[in-house]
Amino acid sequence: MRLLLAIFLPFLVFFTIGRPLAGIVCLILQFTLIGWIPAALWAVYALSEFNTDRKIDDELRRY
Question: pTM for the whole thing?
């Protein structure tokens, strides 16, 4: 679900992963049509980073 948000509404992804300042910067970038593609790529990258960090934290809690 978040991946679809990252493509269509990139700024919302940053708010869902707890990075509101990045979400505001991404929204400003989205205001231009040319900026939509970099904003979407940035959101997908940030989402993958968030998921990786969450998996690492889960593994560290097990030990």
Answer: 0.83
